[in-house]
Amino acid sequence: MMNTTAALSAEATLTTSFQDADPMGIVYHGNYFRYFEEARRVLMGKLNYSYREMQDSGYQWPVIDAQVKYVKAIPFNHEIRVIATLVEWENRLRVNYVIVDAASGEQMTKAHTVQVAVGIDDEMRLASPRVFTEKVEALIAHAQ
Asked: CA of 107: how far to CAs of 49, 57, 97, 102, in Å?
């Protein structure tokens, strides 16, 4: 049996590119958001709620808050694992991220993003739509 945290987590393994680095060969801080996005994309796919499915259900989910703690510099041409974990979903979508060195497992970055449901034709929702929460609940039930 899978626990809830594992059920609501997904990861992406990436190798950082030269184009992601600053002149010192270290990944530029703004590029971390692309890594978070890739892990979040995998997570939403696991929930059967991809960005196309979000749009088809009548909602957009803009990021309204993001926080990052840069623990250790990541050089270019370095293999990392980005783990995304859904920790809130009833009123907003909060995803926590951890970037670890793929070889050693050493933590390099931690972060989170917050997204809210916005109806494509109207305004922000104060609670997540049932079309999304039902998908989360189904995944949790399947994991237990």
From this structure: 28, 36, 11, 10
Q: Give catalytic residue positions.
A: 22
β-sheet bridge partners, residue 60: 118
Give the range of the structural domain holding residue 15, as residue numbers without chain letter. 4-143
Give the mean pLDDT of 3-8. Answer: 81
Q: How far apart are CA 121 and CA 133, in angstroms?
A: 20
Domain count, the chain: 1
Q: What is the CATH number of the domain that holds 114?
A: 3.10.129.10
Give the burial string for 100-128 (b: 16+ CB within 10 Å, else e).
beeeeeeebbbbbbebbbbeeeeeeeeeb
Q: What is the mean pLDDT of residues 26-40?
A: 96
The per-residue pLDDT for range 43-71, each reduced to its tens digit, is 999 999 998 999 999 999 999 999 999 99
pLDDT at 121: 83
